[in-house]
């Protein structure tokens, strides 16, 4: 099968188009013929080697973390899927590889594709929607009437998180650039801060939750908008010791993550705010709940551009510009 692989970690390096063997189909696996895959910032970070300590992939590695396609075969222990089913998923982090024609996915990580989405739209959903769900529902336990700040509202996670937070009954603020103000308002944002004109930490106050996907300065300034007892949850780091323990990292790596997050944890503690890092995990059951919201038109994906499979490197480069509204998708079939 055709695939795009990382041969060696290199910042900005190109993926190589090659012929790879078909994936192994385990007893609980579903073989998916890939129709579309989406590109995430995570893909470029993996290619650059930023996660090589905590995600020890064997190279060459087929890249890609989102998939939509059609089931062609199932393992002998699979109970919930059959050939011909239209499905989508974020594969488990140790079994990624959606920039290819086929992938084997554990059935627990898979869900039936929303019936009101195209394959390209469906492929844009899993990683960012599961991230939003795991931050807002699981980690933050966001309640009706609470106030949440979602940074980078026009991005992949942001466009979904705004809609999910509104569905949960929260007051939603977001940061974005001038050109994307109308977009984030259309998704349900109650307050929009144009980061090119204003400093969010000077105009927003008394928030219960912040979802951070940006850098160190934004992370630290977010403490100023949270009230005592608030939660600062970051998906862009720094990782903390709890993350290291949950992912079974060695004791030395646990100490490294503890040191990496020491500064922000100390500053948060002084303000009686909790800091945590979230690295989303594959979850077919949660994705099925997201499907229900999509089919009820509570959540709609935002797709900026669809690239043909052979232009996967161009798609990755475009995502790295940071200018995409919502998601960028690769049409594989």
TrEMBL record:
Which part of the chain is the Enoyl reductase (ER) domain? 12-330
- Which positions carry the signal peptide feature in this UniProt record? none
Q: Which InterPro entries does the UniProt entry name for this protein?
A: ADH-like_N, ER, GroES-like_sf, NAD(P)-bd_dom_sf, Quin_OxRdtase/zeta-crystal_CS, YIM1/Zinc_Alcohol_DH_Fams
The record's annotation in Pfam families points to: ADH_N, ADH_zinc_N_2
Q: Which PROSITE patterns match?
A: QOR_ZETA_CRYSTAL (PS01162)
Per the record's keyword annotation, is RNA-binding included, yes or no? no
Keyword set for this entry?
A: Oxidoreductase
Q: By what name is this protein known? A: NADPH:quinone reductase-like Zn-dependent oxidoreductase
Q: Which organism is it from?
A: Phyllobacterium ifriqiyense
């Amino acid at each position: 099968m055709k695939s795009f692989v990382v041969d060696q970690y290199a910042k900005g390096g190109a993926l190589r188009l090659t012929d790879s063997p078909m994936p192994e189909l385990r007893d609980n696996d579903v073989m998916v013929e890939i129709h579309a895959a989406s590109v995430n910032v995570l893909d470029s970070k993996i290619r650059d080697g930023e996660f090589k300590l905590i995600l020890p992939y064997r190279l060459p590695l087929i890249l890609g973390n989102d998939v939509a396609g059609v089931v062609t075969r199932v393992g002998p222990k699979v109970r919930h899927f059959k050939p011909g089913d239209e499905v989508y998923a974020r594969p488990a982090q140790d079994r990624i590889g959606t920039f290819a024609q086929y992938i084997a996915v554990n059935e627990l990580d898979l869900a039936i594709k929303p019936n009101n989405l195209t394959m390209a739209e469906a492929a844009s959903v899993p990683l960012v929607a599961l991230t939003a769900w795991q931050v807002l529902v699981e980690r933050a336990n966001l309640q009706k009437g609470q106030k949440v700040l979602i940074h980078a509202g026009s991005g992949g996670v942001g466009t979904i998180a705004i809609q999910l937070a509104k569905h949960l009954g929260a007051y939603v603020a977001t940061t974005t650039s001038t050109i994307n103000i109308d977009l984030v308002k259309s998704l349900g944002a109650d307050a929009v801060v144009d980061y090119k004109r204003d400093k969010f930490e000077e105009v927003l106050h008394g928030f219960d939750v912040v979802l951070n996907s940006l850098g160190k300065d934004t992370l630290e300034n977010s403490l100023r908008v949270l009230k005592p007892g608030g939660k600062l949850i970051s998906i862009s780091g720094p990782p903390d010791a709890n993350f290291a323990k949950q992912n079974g990292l060695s004791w030395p790596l646990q100490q490294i993550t503890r040191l990496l997050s020491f500064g922000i944890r100390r500053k948060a503690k002084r303000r009686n705010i909790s800091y945590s890092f979230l690295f989303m995990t594959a979850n077919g059951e949660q994705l099925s709940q997201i499907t229900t919201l999509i089919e009820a038109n509570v959540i709609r994906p935002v797709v900026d551009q669809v690239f043909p499979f052979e232009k996967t490197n161009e798609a990755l480069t475009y995502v790295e510009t940071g200018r995409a509204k919502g998601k960028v998708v690769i049409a594989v079939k």
